[in-house]
Amino acid sequence: MLRKETSVKNCPEFDFLESLFAAATAAAAPARCVPPHLPDDRHGRLIVVGAGKASAAMARAVEEHWPGPLSGLVVTRYGFAVPCQHIEIREAAHPVPDAAGRAAAAAILQRLRDLRTEDRVLALISGGGSALLAAPGVGVSLTEKQAITTALLHSGANIHDMNAVRKHLSAIKGGQLAAAAWPASLLTLAISDVAGDDPEVIASGPTVGDPSTCSDALSVLDRYAIDISAELRRRLQDGQLETPKPGDPRLARSEFRIIASPALALQAAAATAVAAGVTPLILGDAIEGEAREVARVLAGIARSCADYGTPAKPPCVLLSAGEATVSIHGRGRGGRNSELMLAMAIALQGQPRIHALAGDTDGIDGSEDNAGALIGPHTLQDAAALGLDARAALHDNDAYGFFSAIGDLLISGPTLTNVNDLHAILVR
């Protein structure tokens, strides 16, 4: 069950919004979406590898529906493991990689050594795999990779820029996992957490060709003024860390399938709204940009619904998915969804007919223990009663502290899936 950390509010609107979040995550549950996509021929040995926040739950779904011999290893985020009998489950750090992730990536590559054409490999990939598959490329240290990842996270870089860098600092991303499995056949089942469900972006595309180049990676690092060693700069300039490109013969026996996506989650939330007698309007699954800017735009649309009945007449719920970014300047705590909600509360200024939720469908908003937060007409009033200044909290990037104090954090715990962030705005 979803809950708000310390809230004693009786708020039916929050209950409704939480039901949409629950429906969205349930639609992407590995137990539901993995079995229909397993090969029809389920006999013979299968080697399972994978990474991501959903990978352990995906592995268990495979075990429950595969009668033949199984072996393998997947790595998931700390706290996201589930027990499996035949597939080894390891945990590692996210979003900044650690030594456990490096060891797990090395062990996965080891299991793919010396395969033959008759061998079959199943890759289970989901969001978060980029950090969890921490196999630094030749001449790249884990320490430098950690520093670069942290700097990118703080810079406000979007997922495409981050992945262009991460692929070229890695020995396993950007198609290199598929190249390691060749000449065996490889089937990738992926739960998408990115706008457009681009296979090259999900977990930095470890099983598909990479169209980005070392030059692209270097351009991103320079654009965000991220310091790198002279040796790494030389390797990128010389193309020594290049990745397999589309059309590489080592990828010829690789198949990729999306089995769950942000769009699927939005459709499930919309169906739940319809059942409750509320009109859903899906704004899209590619909402990106600075969280506080996204908040102002979404608040404007919600006000238009409340004041003019357009683009939807109340009662309605505006649904969207995507991944906002946060440029960190303060010392506070909080992820992109919590910051988006804080900025929206400020933009709405207690508008009496609007309630909203923003949450990461994996259950963790950045590095805290909440999935996101909820707001309503009472948000700023509740904060003021406690002596809290919403604008000061936003300036300090302290959305977590703000919502924790008023009891409106959205806390679900790990959902064991990941189909990006969900935004739901109810207009009564």
Strand content: 15-25%
What is the CATH superfamily of the largest domain?
A: Glycerate kinase, MOFRL-like N-terminal domain
Mean pLDDT, all residues: 94
Global outline:
globular
Protein name: Putative hydroxypyruvate reductase
GO molecular function: glycerate kinase activity; hydroxypyruvate reductase [NAD(P)H] activity
Keywords: Membrane, Oxidoreductase, Pyruvate, Transmembrane, Transmembrane helix
Enzyme class: oxidoreductase
Architecture overview:
- The protein is α/β, with parallel strands linked by helices and 428 residues long.
- It has two domains: 3-26 and 263-427, MOFRL domain (glycerate kinase, domain 1, 3-Layer(aba) Sandwich), CATH 3.40.1480; 30-260, Glycerate kinase, MOFRL-like N-terminal domain (Rossmann fold), CATH 3.40.50.
- Helices cover 38% and strands 20% of the residues.
- It is built from 16 helices and 13 strands.
- It has helices at residues 12-27, 30-33, 55-65, 99-111, 129-132, 142-155, 159-168, 176-181, 214-223, 230-237, 262-275, 291-308, 336-348, 379-385, 390-395, 399-406, and strands spanning 3-4, 46-51, 70-77, 88-92, 120-126, 185-191, 254-260, 279-290, 316-325, 354-360, 372-375, 409-411, 421-427.
- The strands form two sheets. Strands 1-12-11-10-13-9-8 form a seven-stranded mixed sheet, sandwiched between helices. The chain has a six-stranded parallel sheet with strand order 4-3-2-5-6-7, with helices on both faces.
- Strand 8 (279-290), helix 12 and strand 9 (316-325) form a beta-alpha-beta unit.
- Helix 1 (12-27) packs across helix 11, helix 7 (159-168) packs across helix 9 (214-223) and helix 12 crosses helix 13 (336-348).
- It is globular, with a radius of gyration of 22 Å.
- The mean pLDDT is 94.
- This is Putative hydroxypyruvate reductase.
- Residues 17-236 form the MOFRL-associated domain.
- It is an enzyme of class 1 (oxidoreductase).
- Pfam families: DUF4147 (PF13660), MOFRL (PF05161).
